[in-house]
């Protein structure tokens, strides 16, 4: 029973000269606070396709809630009230063509320069603040790359991505035997002792190196401490039962050419991760640059993805790119549909999940990093259709990150090169 007047937290049971302090009870919490705590958590899923999409097929010609959908957005039209598409946005001073993908969630400037050092990514900023509330503080995923990551720690170290949907599924949902659990805990303890040993050996070098090397060592030790913390948190979860799901383990395609199957597997995996509250922030690097000829049933794709992106206005290449881009939109539509089918305390998973989809390249053919194609779906926002900014003098995309952080309940007035929150985006759900 929910009482309007909460019981005092100082309440005690008294009798025979004995006072027994009560534990924290639900009835001690004000009704408003109980209602708030019962709300399902919010999540963020950030996706970067590092070859982008054809701009003319993606961006609507008109702005506002009643925009005319472009050819690509027609494939998402069933969900048009659930997302906002942005034009005229970019990361200030992020240039360099293909290398800019590692700045997609950090907005760190000049990623192609020799002196470049990345900064913390949006997902890790979130994980540092609420990551201890779930079994996995964050998930860093990728398709067709083990080297390029969207996730970066506070001192600019890349978090290697996981490529196997089946492997991550097993980590999240397959409970080991008691012996396997204890072996895993011992493995984590061994990992910590190895880190300690390495750190002791490297510290002895500090007295013999210069200032620049000491700075590098300091960065290394910070990374070691972060990893130690992650290992300790992992140890705490090992004895807790894993959630049970009815869906079967996904099958990882053997070939990188089965690109769309890989993407579909990851999308379903992320939905399950959020549905079971296994994590609240996920990144996905779609490394189209490293993808060969894409296999799509019923379609004729004859050239590698990267080569097609440098189409030079060849109609033959453009036709194949339209097929590939359209499949990306169809898979997004499937993710939206499946997320809206999951109910959470009177809302849908889509209401509680922000899906950021975009690219570091506004035009892959020209290696342009301005006018980035971006859409934000779900998250309980009052979506406004097409927010159109100046395509020559771009609006800072990091402002959207600030709005997303605040939607997560994280107090943040600035992120990277932001100038505030995203103009025109209402945080009140329609």
> In whole angstroms, how far apart are the ends?
31 Å
Count the strands?
13
Q: What proportion strand?
A: 5-15%
Count of separate DSSP helical elements: 11
Backbone CA Rg: 24 Å
Largest sheet, in brief, is: 7 strands, mixed
Spatial arrangement of strands, main beta sheet: 6-7-3-10-11-4-12
- Envelope shape: globular
Order of helices and strands: EEHEHEEHEHHHHEHHEEHEEEEH
**Poorly predicted residue ranges:** none
Query: Average pLDDT, to the nearest integer?
Result: 87
Which structural category fits the helices and strands? alpha/beta
Relative helix content: 25-40%
Walk me through what this model shows.
The chain has 11 helices and 13 strands. The chain has helices at 31-38, 55-58, 122-130, 165-173, 178-203, 211-238, 259-275, 305-309, 315-340, 349-352, 398-407; strands at 12-15, 18-21, 43-49, 83-87, 89-90, 139-143, 281-286, 343-344, 347-348, 353-358, 374-378, 385-388, 395-396. The strands form 4 sheets. The chain has a 7-stranded mixed β-sheet with strand order 6-7-3-10-11-4-12, with helices on both faces. Strands 1-2 form a two-stranded antiparallel ribbon. A two-stranded parallel sheet has the order 5-13.
Describe what is shown at a glance.
This protein is of the alpha/beta class and 430 residues long. It is built from eleven helices and 13 strands. 37% of the residues are buried.
Question: What is the topology?
Answer:
Elements: E1 12-15, E2 18-21, H1 31-38, E3 43-49, H2 55-58, E4 83-87, E5 89-90, H3 122-130, E6 139-143, H4 165-173, H5 178-203, H6 211-238, H7 259-275, E7 281-286, H8 305-309, H9 315-340, E8 343-344, E9 347-348, H10 349-352, E10 353-358, E11 374-378, E12 385-388, E13 395-396, H11 398-407
Parallel strand pairs: 3-7, 3-10, 4-12, 5-13, 6-7
Antiparallel strand pairs: 1-2, 4-11, 8-9, 10-11
